[in-house]
Design a protein that fits this description.
Blueprint (H helix, E strand, L loop, with lengths): L4 E7 L3 H13 L2 E7 L3 H10 L4 E2 L3 H5 L4 E4 L6 H8 L8 E4 L5 H10 L7 E2 L1 E4 L19 E4 L7 H13 L3 E4 L2 H27 L4 H6 L3 H7 L6 H10 L1 H23 L3 H16 L1 H10 L8 E6 L5 E4 L5 H13 L3 E5 L5 H12 L3 E6 L2 E5 L13 E2 L4 H11 L6 E4 L10 H9 L3 E3 L8 E4 L8 E3 L5 H11 L5 E5 L7 H8 L5 E3 L2 E5 L8 E3 L4 H13 L4 E8 L6 H8 L3 E10 L2 E9 L20 H9 L4 E4 L12 H11 L3 E5 L2 E5 L6 E4 L4 H10 L7 E4 L11 H8 L2 E6 L1
Parallel strand pairs: 1-2, 1-4, 2-3, 4-5, 5-6, 8-9, 11-24, 12-23, 15-16, 19-20, 30-31
Antiparallel strand pairs: 7-8, 10-31, 10-32, 12-14, 13-14, 16-18, 17-18, 20-22, 21-22, 24-26, 25-26, 27-29, 28-29
Helix pairs in contact: 4-5, 7-11, 12-13, 14-15, 14-19, 16-18, 17-18, 20-22, 20-24, 22-23, 22-24
Length: 737
């Protein structure tokens, strides 16, 4: 759209409004700027700085004939300003503001400017500076900052779009909210902290020992109370204007503070740890957690590109991160157990952390993670509490599918949501059999998230024959079976990972495994235990392929989980001629682990046995690269599940291989890959972590660099991948933005 405002007026020449006008002047979309402020000095300074072209004696004169009117005055002053300017507003003029409270501005607009409501666009920049006034005006103030627009029901779409574009021209990112939601969110995240800071400083200043208190105050006191030096008049106006929402937030805080006081008074260590651990994690992961509760931002907001150059070989001995499947299940079962469960080797990736945060939201006290150590204070089978809002699971399909079964038997309602990628993945293959058990689950169109699970359902055990091998569906039904009347059994058409069965047994729950069928009866209990999470064979697979395809390579991967239901990647690489030695085998916490040595080998194309496909379902992106480097043709069949992962992994790998010069063709349930030279080029990972890591490995054999787009989600399963790959000899760097 074309933006052009011949005459603009700004009423109130402070930091926020003035900086916006300065940015817009640089963009060239506004013409003559007229300003009005109560202080003559401010208006004169604004002219001198070139922020405005002229100043006038009243708000009405400034607004008359203007195409755009910007209100940048204290919150309680807006009513009087609107009453003054409304009668002289030009037809079609857009009116907008920059105040931090929106309900009072809406009320004033309806009272004094009702005829102009379609052209009124209320806004609030989430930005600022410790400096204030005209001298502090900065045209770059809003770059990469959030702006919340709160359109009224009557607001014209064109007016809204115009204001949104004006903020974007200033470098800002615009979000939309309702007026009521905005005031609730800001009351909790901005207004309440300021109120507490003012109160704390005032309380201590009245203390008879206040000199000593302030003299010896540490950094924490200074950091928290810094905001108490803000303008008293401005914050007085904000608290008056947003009184109801501030009181709601304050009442909630006072209630929680009293509960914390009681836990201190009675030395309730678990309750105190619960508050402190939840608070620490919330602060450490502020951008992720707050975004889904307030500003609706993706879990991984940064655009990340990998740039990988050809390398000679890989070498070394090291341990890759912990197994994601085991990490998920350790949090779930540890939370439901009686007693304290200690976990080592926990995968601190985004997916596992999403599961951990979900159980914190349901009242479980969890310490850590710290260097892979997690301590869970179990609440028992019926101790979970209703979370304060939807459980946001990011990109983790495992979290959503397993939790849908576990939560189907709870007494409370809960909604499961995820990021854009997870929100298009099918969930009916879990939801449908759960409904057969009596669960009440609603989904979005075509069985996609969010999942809305109704509490209080009486579940009954069923026998279910899986139409397609899936450990996630099997595990979901077994977890629901913990709460079902009678026996729940699942028969799979081919072996899948059995971590759930093994771990349930490790927690003392009786699970009967008879060939392809796993069964349990509801009504039992789980007893806390200690878990040492083995290294993830899915993460190890990328280095197994890297060493196999790169001449002169020799790598040893330590403490890798070699569960019989997960070793397909080893079996397939050996069938292709891979040189792989498995040694130091032992059992840790019910899971077999071993060290694996991989040396370079001349791989050959094969027809991959279908009985190995379920045993390597997550490792196929890496195996596609092995096939691309093998002599001859590799054929994969029976792998249709790959089309419904984080991406359509068959199509993503085929497209990527073709882009770098490898002949590959997708089929409905697999692919045909003809090994040959890798040219190099550009690949889109589609936000799929395994696609990104697979093409990182492919670059080892490329003639020129490979650039891989959209790699931020690698953190979901393999934190530290870049560093570990670089240490092993892969020449990889990353580019943000």
């Amino acid at each position: 759209m074309t933006l052009s405002f011949n005459r603009v007026c700004i009423i109130g020449l402070g930091l926020i409004g003035g900086s916006w006008v300065a940015a817009l002047r640089q963009s060239g979309v506004i013409g003559h700027v007229v300003g009005f402020d109560r202080n003559l000095d401010s208006m004169q300074e604004a002219v001198k700085l070139g922020v405005i072209d002229e100043f006038v004696d009243s708000a009405a004169i400034a607004a008359q004939g203007s195409d755009l009117v910007i209100l940048s005055v204290p919150t309680l002053a807006i009513s009087a300003i609107l009453a003054e300017v409304a009668p002289v507003l030009k037809k079609g003029a857009i009116v907008t503001d920059v105040g931090s409270v929106k309900g009072s501005v809406e009320s004033a607009a309806r009272m004094y400017a009702s005829a102009h409501l379609p052209q009124i666009v209320l806004g609030h920049p989430i930005a600022g500076s410790e400096k204030s006034g005209v001298a502090a005006i900065d045209a770059s103030l809003f770059e990469r900052q959030k702006i919340i627009l709160t359109p009224l029901a009557e607001t014209n779409d064109q007016a809204l779009l115009s204001v949104q574009r004006l903020w974007e021209l200033a470098g800002a990112r615009v979000e939309l909210m309702s007026v009521e939601r905005h005031d609730q969110v800001l009351a909790a995240t901005s207004h309440l902290p300021h109120l507490l800071a003012f109160s704390l400083v005032d309380t201590l200043a009245h203390n008879h020992e206040n000199k000593e208190i302030f003299e010896y105050a540490a950094g924490g006191f200074r950091d928290f109370t810094r905001i108490a030096s803000s303008s008293p008049q401005m914050w007085h106006d904000i608290f008056v204007a947003n009184r109801s929402a501030v009181l709601d937030a304050l009442d909630l805080f006072v209630g929680e503070l009293n509960a914390l006081r009681n836990s201190v008074a009675f030395s309730d260590s678990t309750a105190m740890l619960g508050v402190f651990t939840r608070a620490k994690v919330a602060r450490d992961h502020f951008s992720k957690i707050l975004s889904k509760r307030a500003y609706v931002e993706p879990m991984n907001s940064k655009s990340l590109t990998y740039i990988v150059s050809p390398s000679e070989k890989v070498s070394g001995a090291f341990r890759v991160p912990g197994d994601k499947s085991v990490s998920h299940r350790s949090i779930m079962l540890g939370s439901l157990a009686e007693g304290v469960t200690e976990i080592s080797g926990f995968l601190e990736g985004e997916d596992s952390l999403a599961t951990l945060q979900a159980f914190r939201d349901m009242g479980v006290v969890i310490e850590g993670p710290h260097r892979g150590k997690v301590v869970i204070h179990g609440v028992g089978m019926h101790g979970l509490k209703q979370p304060p809002g939807p459980l946001y699971l990011g990109n983790s399909g495992t979290s959503m599918r397993l939790l849908s079964g576990l939560l189907a038997g709870q007494s409370f309602d809960v909604t499961l949501t995820g990021d854009d990628s997870l929100s298009v993945r099918p969930m009916n293959r879990v939801a449908d059999p759960l409904r057969t058990m009596g669960a009440e689950i609603e989904t979005a169109a075509q069985g996609r998230p969010p999942l809305m699970i109704k509490g209080g359902a009486k579940l009954k055990g069923i026998h279910y024959d899986l139409p397609m091998a899936s450990a996630q569906v099997k595990s979901s039904l077994l977890l629901a079976g913990l709460y079902a009347e009678g026996e729940t059994s699942v028969t799979e058409p081919a072996p899948t990972r059995d971590h759930s069965e093994r771990m349930l047994q490790g927690f003392g729950y009786d699970v009967l495994v008879d060939g392809p069928t796993a069964a349990l009866s509801g009504g039992g209990t789980l007893s806390a235990t200690n878990i040492d999470v083995p290294s993830d064979i899915s993460s190890a697979a990328f280095f197994m392929v890297a060493a196999s395809i790169s001449e002169g390579s020799d790598i040893t991967l330590q403490h890798v989980g070699v569960n019989p239901t997960r070793v397909g990647v080893i079996n397939i690489l050996r069938l292709m001629g891979g040189d792989i030695e498995v040694f130091n085998e032992k059992t840790v916490g019910g899971e077999p682990v071993a060290d694996i040595r991989i040396r370079s080998a001349k791989l050959k194309g094969i027809r991959i046995p279908e009985d190995q496909v379920p045993l390597a379902i997550d490792e196929f992106p890496a195996l596609f690269v092995a096939a691309a480097c093998a002599e001859g043709e590799t054929v994969l069949t029976g792998a249709e599940e790959l089309r419904v992962k984080e991406s359509d992994r068959i199509q993503a790998m085929v497209d990527g291989l073709n882009a770098i010069g490898v002949r590959a063709e997708g089929t409905p349930d697999g692919a045909v890959i003809l090994g040959g030279a890798i040219r190099g080029g550009e690949v889109d990972s589609l936000g799929d972590h395994r696609i990104a890591m697979a093409f990182t490995v492919a670059a080892l054999k490329a003639r020129s660099e490979i650039r891989i787009a959209d790699c931020a989600n690698v953190a979901t399963s393999f934190p530290g991948f870049i560093e570990l790959a670089s240490a092993a000899g892969i020449s990889v760097s990353q580019l943000e933005g």
